Amino acid sequence: MTQTETATEYEYSQTAKPQVFIDTELSELRSKVEEYHERGWRYVNICGTALPDGQVELIYSFSDGLPLENLRVVVDTTTEVQSISDIFPNSFFFENETHDLFGVQFAGISIDFDGEFYTVSVPTPMNPRSSQAVAAVAEGAGSVGAEAGAEAGAAGDTKRGGRK
Amino acid sequence: MSQRTIIPFGPQHPVLPEPMHLDLVIEDERVVEAIPQVGFIHRGLEKLVTKKDYTQFVLVTERICGICSFGHSLGYSETVEALMGIEVPPRAEFLRVIWHELSRIHSHILWMGLLADGFGYENLFMQCWRLREQVLDILEATTGGRVILTACNVGGVEQDIENGELNGICQTLDGLRGEYNQLLKTFLKDKSVRHRLVGVGYLSEADARAAGTVGPFARASNIPEDIRSLGFGAYAALSGFEPITSKDGDGYARCEVRALEVLQSIDIIKELAEKIPDGAINQKVKGAPEDGSYAVSRLEQPRGECFYFAKGNGTKFLERFRIRTPTSQNIPGMVQTLQGCDLADVPLNVLTIDPCISCTER
After folding, report:
1. CA-to-CA separations, B357 to B4, B15, B351, B353, in angstroms, rounded
2. Given B44, B296, B322, which is nearest A68 (Cβ)?
């Protein structure tokens, strides 16, 4: 079943798990996040999903006990997404992770690992459809991500991790 | 003015079963700032969801963590069931919660043992792990596995537990409770234990809320949030559930909350064993999640709230599956407790949030 409803349409029950997904424009993301903060809601998660066209779908989740709402926003990996770590400090962890996995460009993260959040030998971002990965393959500088390596037939670059 | 020095802590350290690194900025043996780094054991398990179909992937989720493995298979199954609108038979719901609470007991006792080892009480460590064996024996007798149970699947559970066997489990837990109470007295009353924990790593309620902490770490700072109190699954059948909290917000409070949750879990298992209905344990699952379908689910793991997200694409392979683990929510709070503490208290402070890095990095 597809659950794309607004918060007001959903009726919370004691046993049903709330499934509220609200489509949001990137321009209004921060104001909506600030609204959750003002209402005393808790930040829960940021989840990225790589879309076939190279864009990334971000799901921001917030909760206040049983109610749980998810903001759905689709972004391009060349577009700068303003960090929410000044509103919810614990989101820095997830924004760094989402950058390394999907290539989303976050601006203003409170602790920015600058693409080296994961200390692994695989170059980041690992999303082969991200703008950075596509550019790296085009330049012949080596592949970014396993799939890109397989597709391009190029050997993967390695780099030593470590926070800058 | 004292000179500032940076001391690296981890990724290999005696109190850390899994790798995590901290850059500790210290001044006169007092921590001024701690900068965390994870990412040493990222395995890309979430990506595997595009390679294994949704019924097979439950086996991968169990291998995300070696302690809360059953919880992850349960969280995954519940998310896919929400995605596909599958109703799970009531008996399966009860069995899931019984195994999940058994996992919580062994996880908490394991942590208490590690804490005892952390403050140098080796005998207490061994007694904790000896008791934990009894729970692992129950898991082995009912599922065949001690840690990786393979008991949960999409639509229900793999094995049933006969009602007679459930009575036997309750008797074993009664015996365990007697021995556990003796250990509890040491953890909560012993002078040397209190000396190492009381007042160490204090986190106020306001700071805990601002840092977004979850689980026993949050409850020890007087935040009464526990996903079990929302009444999902068989938790709705309980006559009452009140999260265990403490107002102290220090290492001792975290120990107290977890220690008392073991007794609470025993009570939950006993109540559900009395109320468990007869009937099927599995619902046959057909088809695939619809294209563009989304579902989220939450679960109270031993370390706190765990969040699951799944997205379907019309095939048997999910488009995306995401786990947000409790440790990733608790690291910012942990960093806050480290600021201002003595260098010698850092290992114990890190331990009191019960970090699980395997889950966090997946």
Report:
1. 29, 13, 12, 12
2. B296
